[in-house]
Amino acid sequence: MIVSVVSMPEGFARRAPVSEARERLAESRFLFVDAELPEEAPPGEQPVAHLLGLEADDLAWLGRETESARAEFRGDSAAFVVPAIEAGQVIHLHVVATERYLVAVHRGPAGLVENLIARFPHERPPDAVATLFLLLGEAVETYRRSAVQALLEVEDLEDAMFRRREPEQLYRLARLRRTAALLHHTLLPYHQAAEETITRRVLNRNFPEERHRLAREYQRVSRQVLTEIEALQEAARRGFSTYSSLVSGEQNGVINRLAIVSTIFLPLSFLTGFFGMNFAYLTDELESGAVFWLLAVGLQVVFLVIALYVLHRTRIWRRLHDDEEFDDDR
After folding, report:
1. Cβ within 8 Å of residue 140, ≥6 positions away
2. 84 within 8 A of 93, measured Cβ to Cβ
3. β-strands 89-97, 101-107: how paired?
4. 8 A C-beta contact, residue 98 and residue 76
5. 195, 216 in Cβ contact below 8 A?
6. d(Cα 30, Cα 9) in Å, to the nearest integer?
7. Among 71, 75, 63, which residue's Cα sits nearest to residue 99?
8. What are the C-alpha distances in Å from 314 to residues 147, 267, 320?
9. Is the pLDDT of residue 42 over 70?
10. Cα dihedral 88, 90, 91, 97 sign
11. Which of 77-86, 138-147, 239-248 has the lowest mean pLDDT?
């Protein structure tokens, strides 16, 4: 386990052994402790709360690999399991906050915690509760960045579709739609739990006004991020509809071309078949070259001219012409 200890409100961070972190948690007035666990729990792993000297029966979940979303206020302490996005993967931060300290536990590296620690010397949060809301806001911001990036990719894909449709675009749309589903599926349970818990806490008359402001601001940002994720889901669905519409348009163009070819060659095929029959009248009476040119060739030319005129006067020809102009513009 890798432990980083930050003295607050000065914001000075350094690595420390578990024993030192345990001692300082028992003595310091305001401390931020970040514990990085192995990505996979080794056999016989001791509870993190026990290693840090946080002897409490209700902290058995701290650092547990299978722990789900959590947002609870228990008297003078708060317990959160917060999802965040790191390199396209969901990680969970286990957070315990009291009036004296804030402990964050996660498996594997967490860039958002490093970003938060880097902000401490400049922002200097006055207490552990303010630090807690900074950490919660930083976790939600990872979702916002992922949602905005995916939304921009969807819009770029839609523009590329109108220029040139390719099968690979459908695969990329499916991947982005899956990303949107992942963001929504992992954030929504935590958002609902945190919304209920923080709202109940804010309604408490003893809740300080400054903390009330921090809670309301965090709730506003969290709702906005969830709205942006839902907008990403809608944009992904719209992208699939756009792709389907383009495919349907191309299929309609093919059908129009087939209709034109059929209209031209159907009368010609009929004439060819008719004069190819072995009726006595056809074989005995229509023997001269003039009759051949008049009936066999002349009728086909007349039917061809009539067919082209009819196509030119109908929507099929104009629709095909418009489709070709649209393809040229693309």
Report:
1. 187, 218, 221, 222, 225
2. yes
3. antiparallel
4. yes
5. no
6. 7
7. 75
8. 48, 18, 11
9. yes
10. positive
11. 239-248
User: What is the Cα–Cα distance from 275 to 230, expressed in whole angstroms?
Assistant: 67
pLDDT tens-digit profile of 291-321? 667 776 777 788 778 777 776 676 655 555 5
Q: What is the pLDDT of residues 227-253, one digit of tens each?
A: 999 999 998 888 888 877 777 777 777
Which structure tokens are listed for 175? 């991947």
Distances (CA, A) of 190 to 4, 136, 140, 255, 259: 26, 11, 10, 51, 57
Q: Which residues pair with 72 in a beta bridge?
A: 79
Q: What length is written for the chain?
A: 330
DSSP, residue by residue, 16-27: E-HHHHHHHHHH
Alpha-carbon distance values, 122 to 51, 118, 126, 130 (Å): 31, 8, 12, 14
Place of tokens 């006004």: 209
Residue type, 292: F
State the residue for tokens 């709205």.
227
* Residue 327 confidence class, pLDDT cut points 50, 70, 90: low
Q: Is 189 left (phi over 0), alpha (psi -120 to 50) or beta?
A: alpha
Q: Which two tokens stand for residue 240?
A: 């699939």
Tokens of 243: 């792709």
Structure tokens at 150: 């995916």
- Determine if the pTM surpasses 0.90: no
Amino acid, single-letter form, for residue 201: R
Q: How far apart are CA 239 and CA 243, in angstroms?
A: 6
C-alpha dist (Å) from residue 243 to 181, 191, 313: 20, 33, 31
Give residue for tokens 């200890």.
Answer: 5
Tokens found for residue 95:
């957070």
